[in-house]
Amino acid sequence: MCPARYLTLSLHPASAGFASPRLHRRTDLIMALEVVVGPPLLTINCGDTFVVSEADGCITPNTDQGMYSRDTRHVSHYEIFADGEHWILQNSGAIAYYASRTYLTNPRIVTQYNEIQAGTVALILDRAVGDGIHEDFDIRNYSMKRVRFFLELLLRTDFADIFEVKSKRLIHKGNVRTEWHQNTSELISSYAHNDFKRSVITRFMRNGSAATYSNGRIRFLVDLVPGGSWHTCCQHAFLGEEASRASQLCVHMLRDASSPVEQELASWRKVTTSVTSSNEDVYRLFRQSVEDMAALRLSEKAGAPNGFIPAAGVAWFVPVQYLGVNVPQAWAAGSVFHLLQAILGLEADAHKKTLYVDPVLPPWLSDMTLHNLRVGASKLTLPFWTEGNETRYEVLSGQGGLLVERHREPEADA
Asked: Strand, helix or coil at 155?
């Protein structure tokens, strides 16, 4: 059972540096929230495909963890070994909403070839979600001796319905067939239950050594001289009756600005509102929120530019940083926009093509400029700054004939 911690919040507009008459009319709010802290997990997602794993990249069976696509959990158990020993986690984290990186090192290993001292071999696991899931395994020998061991991957599938995983009542039905194709280094798992069919192809490419399959594990003999390195790519492809075998980009190529996913993300930033400010924290926070909102989109139609619909992130029951909370989460990503809306007193009337403002910048924010702020078909650039005790603004540029007016003072209560 996860430990429960109680957090007491006291909210008062003036204490936050706001002096808006509209906010002062609110009363103090004091509330106690129960925060249940769950285990530290890695969650990455892109559209309707996502991965929830341990911090070391493994997937623990009989939990909500797994590799999911659409309405199905395809992979329910995933472990990485060095001659039967678990790797030791050094550090890990998400490097983008769709990608993660995990740093591992070896324990002391006694192999049939030699003894490998602990902490002398490093494994970097890069994982990215896109058209399937791509993994890069990079191993380097930092010792002064030659090392030889078997890198082993254990992978099991259950093709569980996402709602059955949520309810923790898995009902085993249908048949799963697993085949290993040595000539193509592919492990193919297929599931069929009446007319419902799913499959996952785990394919290894650019291998530093040949892949073999035995006793439910995929094995590679890693043989490294001092300072030597070893690499392999692993891609998991999901589909209905047959998984796609289309080759996927390595994770470091996906992170390049010229990759399709980064170009699409750049296009998303161009059509969304951006913020500049002398307060670097505000700029970075807003930029991260825009990227988090990008992670919450689902493709509305394949191949349609900007054809997305909003979503709430990965499955709502996935236990990430807080039990039952998603990363990123819609309310958390959107809270930054609500905060700025409150600070600037923004209220749009698209029918009248009018934007009402009532800005009150707090002491920690002396200036802010909104770029590409859209109201209906109109958009504008709107800077705000403080002069003495007042907050001023002006319209720098715009199109679509949008009118900007200051809010009238609220009428006093009778």
From this structure: strand
pTM of the model: 0.74
Q: Please give the radius of gyration of the chain, using alpha carbons only, rounded to the nearest integer.
A: 26
Number of domains in the chain: 3
In this structure, the answer to whether residues 302 and 217 fall within a common structural domain is no
pLDDT score, position 19: 43
298 and 176 in one domain? no
- Domain around 242: 41-251
Alpha carbons 233 and 250: distance in angstroms, whole number? 7
d(CA 335, CA 123): 37
Mean pLDDT over 177-189 rounds to 93
Beta strands in 107-253 (DSSP E): 109-110, 115-116, 121-130, 132-141, 147-161, 175-181, 186-193, 196-205, 211-214, 217-224, 229-239
Helix (H) or strand (E) holding 397: strand 397-399
For 375, counting Cβ atoms within 10 Å of its Cβ (0-12 exposed, 13-18 middle, 19+ buried), the class is buried
Q: Tell whether 411 is covered by a domain.
A: no
CB atoms within 10 A of CB 165: 22
Give the residue from 260, 276, 254 showing the smallest Cα distance to 382. Answer: 276
> Is the same domain home to 233 and 311?
no
| Whether the Cβ atoms of residue 330 and residue 341 lie closer than 8 Å to each other | no
Q: Is the dihedral of CA 200, 222, 96, 303 positive or negative?
A: negative
Q: How many CA atoms lie within 13 A of 390 on its CB side?
A: 3
